[in-house]
Amino acid sequence: MSGGVGREDPGVDRALRLTVPSELAETAGAVLMDLLGPFEEQPGRDATTLVFYPACDPATGEPPPFEDVLATLPAELRASGRVQIETRDVSRDWVDGWKDHFRPIVIGRVRIRPPWEPALESAAPGGTGLDRAAPDGAAPDGAAPDGAGLVDVVINPGLGFGTGLHATTRGTLQLLQRVPGGRAAQGQPLGPVVDAGTGSGILAIAAAKLGWGPVFAFDNDPVALISARENVEANAVQGVVEIDQADIQEASAAWFAGATVLANMTLAPVTALLRRLALLEGPWSGGGVEGARPARVVVSGILSGAQEVKLLDEARLHGLAPGERIYEDEWVSMEFAPAAGGHAVSGGAGGGESAGARPRGA
I want to staple 258 with a disulfide (CB 3.0 to 4.6 A). Which of 51, 179, 285, 357 is the partner? Predict the structure, then answer.
């Protein structure tokens, strides 16, 4: 706990900093939001620090006791010995400072904004065609700098993860907008989407506004589902996006037929998802062949290097060939499509890389 600032100072509040393994940060944040409110995320390769600004007890001026915070976390995380928690005194202008972290961001044709930022007057409410997404949030080819042609996605960052600020979300949105087969240019429907582990619903909402549909989004976390449903309603896409509580094994097989599957999760659930997809009946839905399996899988939440190699090997075992990869910081976002004949793939890593991509260990 930092010192030097008295609690009698009316311009001071307490920030609670929780450091957890990076692969468990999303779970910890979702669980603790009800108790502690919104937070900032400071990711690293092995550990992520979640910075909360909880309401303090009026009598003591203190945030919730550490014991209460730790008791809220899953038992396996508490038992891991890899959780660090501390409080620090911060200036009371933290509210404005927190909002400074959530400014509008443009990823291809998607403009993501928090509720307190206005929509662009020229932003399109939705659409059926896509321009190629540009790396690093730049305007896509053909998009006017004043926002013409952008779709407006509003996300409340106080409700859940997935604000567009994280590299994994950006990578997934960029790959989603690489529409195969020229359908966008021809004005054709873009087809169904499944958003596995939807979190705040940001990927499902963006997909719906870009012209994909129907969109099936699921999560096994009831806190995340509250966030997703509220964001879906705020974006008026409830007629396109269906939100369900389910885990990977419970998700309806019918959702996946011919779909683009989005999975911004950690390595273990992404691997479980690929295995589930491989068990679906019928051929992969590539090359115009209809089956129960999806046409395309876009994954993120994967660390470049060892995790990347493991996922590439897993995908090949299940008849999926790697496509484009986008690298940002320590993260890689990857797309997969059915291999020729839908059989397991052998050979090197393969696959394309986006302009400026930096392969790291694969």
Answer: 285
